Amino acid sequence: MLQRKVVNVMQGWIDGFQKSIEYIEENLSGTLDIEDIAAEAALSSFYYQRIFGAMCGMTVGEYIRARRMTLAAQELACSERKVIDIAVKYGYDSPDSFAKAFQRFHGISPAQARGTGVNLRSFAPLHIKITLEGGNMLDYNIVEKAPFTVIGIKKRFNTETNYKEVPEFWNEWMSDTKGLKGMFGISTDMDGRNFYYWIADLYMPWDEIPEDCEVFQIPGGLWAQFQCRGPLPESLQKVNTQIWSEWLPALQGYELAGNYSLELYLPPAEDPADTVSYIWIPLKKL
Long-range CB contacts (< 8 A, 24+ apart) of 161-168? Predict the structure, then answer.
């Protein structure tokens, strides 16, 4: 009975996510806004993009570009339409920008795609399904926390490139810590394509604010707290993927809250296998 209930909850959640994929497919030749896409899944753009990346292994933008390049190649091969018309149809302002993107994806120019016997890449539409196999353990607890204030440095990142650039931000910080210990990594203010990432500590009002640092208040409320144990960043990335692809679809009685998420870093252990960190996700009761 419990398994059936969990499957029903997951299926309802996956159906909403699949609806967002279908919305993308219906609008590939028009304007696609991440807020509208996420609304189809009843999620904020902040959480939608994190879940999409964990479940699909790519960003929303990468998926849209792959699908548009697939359809553009089909039109080039099967029609007499001008290249500029196809470029505009799939969101490119000029034949040059379209040709560069086409070359990266297919390995040939748009003109060559009209020849016979050429190899073109095809990226099929995603279809989200769930399969219950062996259960994976994911330890977490739901706790209530009072508001607290952090102090840190922040930098704006693009969702398309943040996996590479955020670690570089941490490397930059390690060469000039500005008096910070790096207790938190905080993602805030997702606007669809960009967000702020903070390297931060708890704010102590009696301490002077270092140059280039700011304070930021984290609202009080309920949090799902997940422990990550093992070498970083592998242990944290593994749990993060489980949160968005396994735990969230089966969540009952709560929904995601806020436009932020936190990583908590404890001092490294002598043995990297014993290093402990946490991921905090804000929730509210239904």
Answer: 162/195, 162/197, 166/197, 167/233
For 94, the domain range is: 1-132
Give the integer Cα–Cα distance in Å for 188 and 196. Answer: 5
Q: Note whether 147 and 267 are same-domain residues.
A: yes
Query: Which of helix, strand or coil describes residue 219?
Result: coil
Q: How far apart are CA 55 and CA 53, in angstroms?
A: 6
Helix locations, 43-160, DSSP H: 45-56, 60-78, 83-89, 95-106
CA distances (Å), origin 249, targets 245, 278, 281, 285? 7, 20, 14, 16
The Cα–Cα gap between 272 and 245 comes to 26
Number of separate domains in the chain: 2
- Residue 98 and residue 124: Cα distance in Å, rounded? 20
**Per-residue model confidence as pLDDT tens digits over 12-60:** 677 888 899 999 999 998 889 888 998 998 888 888 888 888 777 788 8
The whole-model pTM stands at 0.76
For residue 257, give the nearest of 232, 227, 223, 211 by alpha carbon.
223
Q: Which of 70, 131, 78 is nearest to 105 (CA)?
A: 70
For the stretch 88-99, pLDDT in tens is 999 888 889 998
Distance from the Cα of residue 215 to its chain's centroid? 25
Whether 104 and 145 map to the same domain: the answer is no
